[in-house]
Design goal:
Layout (H helix, E strand, L loop, with lengths): L1 H14 L6 E7 L14 E5 L2 H14 L5 E7 L2 E3 L3 E3 L2 E3 L8
Length: 99
């Protein structure tokens, strides 16, 4: 009986935890994302949705002392060789931009 109860409790704990899929990269006092930025040095949080990530980035810019900053959110980022990161996609706006 104890084993069944323990198994049930463990399944509840694992069901309630999710890995965040979005990583926030924040660049304080930078009006644009630097072309040579090292992503791993600019991680500012992990979020479950793109909206949460982008809203947090916008809030950080708004609350900064200078009011200047840039940010982007990476989806499903993984570590690669030489301390780098690679993400499947990047977003820097809730509204898609047209080129």
């Amino acid at each position: 009986m104890r084993i069944v109860l323990l198994g049930f409790l463990l399944s509840l704990l694992t069901a309630c935890t999710q890995n965040p899929e979005w990583t926030l990269f924040y660049y304080p006092d930078e009006p644009q994302i630097p072309a040579d930025a090292v992503l791993g040095e600019h991680i500012s949080g992990y979020y479950g949705t793109s909206e949460q990530c982008l809203l947090k980035g916008a809030g950080m810019v708004k609350l900064s002392d200078s009011g200047i900053g840039s940010y982007q959110c990476g989806h499903l980022c993984v570590a690669k060789e030489q301390n780098g990161l690679s993400c499947q996609t990047y977003l820097d706006s809730l509204i898609p931009t047209s080129d």
